[in-house]
Design a protein that fits this description.
The chain is α+β, with helices and mostly antiparallel strands and 164 residues long. It contains four helices and eight strands, in the order H-H-E-E-E-E-H-H-E-E-E-E. The strands form two sheets. The chain has a four-stranded antiparallel beta sheet with strand order 1-2-3-4, covered by helices on one side. It is globular.
């Protein structure tokens, strides 16, 4: 591997490892009703995706997938002030998934998945998010299975990869 490629790879690995630490510093400073959109962007960077809301507000997605276990949705009102901030990879949100929901609805609910895999033999497109698990040493994943024919949600599931 060339030195410049190695440096790039090492820098990306370090940045990924430090993202949770940055969140611990930056997230408490984002206060609904006070913090501006420009302050959020200066602290968190550009959002991974922007959802336009019917009321004129916008929701910014800050996914920590695939290495992290969180996804923050920060809603900015029409006055460019933070309205609310939510960590969306939660048990309460997993329970909101209903048969037939679209991929867009699921992306809006959970943010960008860590992976997407199509299983033609099963007739499924499976999206997966790494989530907080019990015990925390194990890797836990929440999955949404989409039917390839209808395009809608077929079911959800979880899997655990035991470590150590």
């Amino acid at each position: 591997m060339k030195l410049s490629a190695w440096i790039g790879t090492a820098t990306a690995a370090i940045a990924t490892a430090l993202l949770p630490a940055c969140d611990m510093v930056n997230l408490p400073e984002i206060k609904p009703g006070i913090t501006t959109a420009s302050e959020v962007e200066s602290r968190m960077g550009k959002p991974g995706f922007e959802f336009q809301n019917d009321d004129g507000s916008v929701t910014w997605e800050y996914s920590r997938q695939p290495a992290g276990t969180t996804c923050y949705m920060i809603t900015i009102n029409s006055n460019q002030i933070v309205e609310k901030m939510d960590q969306v990879l939660t048990e309460a949100n997993y329970g909101k998934v209903r048969d037939g929901m679209s991929r867009d609805e699921i992306r809006r609910l959970f943010g960008k998945p860590a992976s997407k895999v199509v299983f033609d033999n099963l007739g499924e497109d499976i999206w997966e998010w790494r989530i907080e698990g019990t015990p925390p040493m194990d890797e836990t994943y929440f999955m949404v299975h989409f039917d390839l024919n209808s395009g809608g949600v077929k079911k959800t599931s979880k899997r655990v990869v035991q470590r150590g």
